Amino acid sequence: MALFGKQQSVKIKMKKEELVHLHLLLAQLKKYCELEGVNCEFERYNELAITPFQVHRSKNDHKQAVLILGNELVALAARNNFRVGK
Asked: What is d(CA 80, CA 45) in angstroms, rounded to the nearest whole number?
């Protein structure tokens, strides 16, 4: 497989442990935003009813949580002009 040349679709595979770790990091950022009083809405993430500490949940559950929480954090940053804190 050539690194340069024809454009190819690249899929990055993560292990469940890596997804759970990323989920934990995003959840910590979510908590920080909430503690700082940033006008935040995490409705879709909260509807999932999953936390990073629920390691028994499926890899797909954590992947979904990472994608949704990541999207909500990006939307929050965009609404606040990428400013967090007072």
From this structure: 19
If phi over 0 gives left and psi between -120 and 50 gives alpha, with beta otherwise, what is residue 77? alpha
Domain annotation for the chain: domains and CATH numbers: 16-79 (1.20.1270.110)
Structure tokens at 23: 């989920």
Alpha helix (H) ranges present in the chain? 16-35, 43-48, 59-79
Average pLDDT over residues 8-34: 88
pLDDT at 37: 84
Q: Whose structure tokens read 């909260």?
A: 46
Percentage of residues of the chain with pLDDT beyond 70: 80
| Apex 9 CA angle, 13 and 59, nearest 5 | 20
Packed helices 16-35 and 59-79: angle between N→C axes, nearest 10 degrees: 30
